[in-house]
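quick one, two chains, predict together pls
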Amino acid sequence: MQGSKPLGISSFAMLKLATAIIELNISVLLFFLGNPFPTMFPSLDAGLTMLIALLLGVLDLIIAYNLWNGQAFGWIMSTMFLIIDVILRVTLPILFGVMYIAFAILSELDIAIMYYTTRPKVMLFFGGETIREIYEKFKVEMQPQIKELKFTLHLVKKSPLSIVGAAIVLFYVVIAVFAPVLAPPGHLSQGGNPYMMPKYGILLVPQPPSPDHPFGTMEGQYDIYYGCIWGTRTAFRIGLSVVAASLIMGLVIGVISAYYGGWIDEILMRFTDIILAFPGLILCMAFVVVLVPMGMNRLDAVMLALVLVGWPGYARLIRSEVLRVKNEDYVEAAKSVGCSPLRIISRHILPNSIYPIIVSATLDIGTMVLTAAALSFLGLGADPGYADWGWIINLSRNWIYGSPQNPYQYWYTFVYPGVFISFFVLGWNLLGDALRDILDPTLRRK
Amino acid sequence: MSEKPLVYIDDLVLNFYTYEGVVQALDKVKFFVKEGETLGVVGETGCGKSMTAFSVLRLVPPPGKIEGGKIFLRKDGKWLDILRQREGYLRRIRGNDISMIFQDPRSALNPVYTVKDQIGEAIKLHRREEICAKIIENYGEGKIKLSNFERKMLEKMKKNPRALSVRFTSKMPLLRGFKKKFDAEVEREVVKLLRDMRIPDPERVAEMYPHELSGGMAQRVVIAIALSCSPKILIADEPTTNLDVTVQLQILTLIRELKEKYNATVHYITHDMGVIAELCDRVVVMYAGNVVEMADVMEIFKNPLHPYTKALLECIPRPGREFKSIEGFVPSLINPPQGCRFNDRCPFRMDICLKEKPDFVKVKEGHFVFCHLYSGSGGSK
């Protein structure tokens, strides 16, 4: 780079110098004057804005100096500068208001100029190819994947149950995402926590559905509709995080014990046997009862208990799969090429043994929610008032039978949350079944 | 062919611990492989041919355990006892100095990766420095230049591929250009290798998955993996057993050609005397975990000495001759016969055969036999 200054680089340096001076001036002004527009922008933090402007100014100064010397940065540095530059420039107008936007757009031009003047350099990011060429190559490279994906979609289309399963799960996802719209929080009784159900009064007897409370209210005048909607988020949180955590735990323990064998296997598997020897729900309850007094949030305690009870299943499953794959010739071949154990496990064994576990995990997402609901029903679930389907059902336990004249008087207290739970579990089960048919390479092409 | 041995196996003892008892799979196996030759190891199923080969790589499957003996490998002019090396060092030897072709090519390939990935794996493991140096050299001039950063990263990678900076940047979308160049170079090597294997349209085959390949094709890919790092010794474990005859011939021809081209020593395991006659320079005959005879290939066919070798040669079916087989059965290796392990099937059995295990007798230059018949007369130790 020394000696040969490409056309445009020096003008770029000049522009950078100009923006640097302006930004430094702004920061000095802010420092001395404080907020210049107290009436227009009362919330503007002069100190922070000053700091950002100062940073931007110094950054531009450095870039300008280096460009002037003809020592363009290595592209890694310039990319970094560019990223910081853009982030700061985007935050500054937000803080500083409309006044700065015009200036920001103007100074943003330098990025465009930088791209065009140093275009050959920018192109080097991608190994000397234009973006169009990269895209074409990517398309060709991805051909087999796209083909398989299309086939997978075709399979999905062919099995209606998988569509139903996916639709149910998607429906719940939509409910969970749009919960604040469907059931706006903000009732005084919630205390600012949207996951607590609002309490409309202190009346003990549940009230039937009304325009204000579409699913009615339950004992203590908790709004059932709100609880069902926000309970979806709780259900996803329990299902996904519990399954993910126990999957990882089971995976690590199962793989290690199967791959290394011997006394490591013996110790780990006897340990899993101990956990499996207890009835799952009882052990869960025991864990919750121990964990809650230790200062844990009740919902977290339930989730942790489910993980601690749930991992042995995965560990056993992955162990048997790894034991099967471990003796395949290609693992021996990989060893004879000189692969390390970690590489053999991650590249040769896991890709060939993970599918049954993934399917089982998908099926378990529903089951975990069911178990959590059972714990709630037994009174060991989330905090009272927490938007959780199991807790709603727990509270409506006393209202299953109404009066002798009208035994189903309070049907809404348990039917709505019950339907929510059942369909949630059904959706995941259907999806899991469909996933097995689609992912399993031996069933795939039948 | 030089006369210097490249691998020397001395009194190798290998036992398998099973519930039925200790299977004495190899009992004082002793032979050597000369540099540049093709050594054929022949014997019945279960006589320990493959286990000897696995021992050389020290990859004996459990519950097998190497209980004694030494395996020397000559590396850079020094003798290296493979059984005493650290596992990490062995990993550098496997694939690089010694590599193996497996019996069933289909199961030796991982079904979830393309041919390109599987051959590339060995190259990336052992030839990283060479490939990096090549890229740095070749990209220097020409239209596409290597940026400073890429050069720096490649040099770093050449030194230590597990450096944090290399591992991190090779996964960053904009920064991994050097990794892409590396992968492209590896792919070029793979295609070159496949072309050497006489595979038509190597660019297309490189993108294929193992299930799309025919048996012969898959075996060529396995051979390509084995040869990808130009090993000194190529162990071929019955590579043609599962193939039909025409493909078998092609693979044999290929191995013979590649041996010259890659300057490798071949340790060929088979039970087919025809293949031995076709391919090998020297033969080791094994029986029930013992070496019984070792000689040049012509010598074995013209002048077999050990009773077992004689019987084995008689067993080759030929037109116009009655079908013959060796009387008796291969002894159980849990309770092998005392003394010579062939004694219960041997027509020339003597008293000493029941008591004492025969040591090798050098009958003439390059012809060794492990038999009491020759220890007194004419043979010298």
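The first strand of chain B starts at residue 5 and ends at 18.
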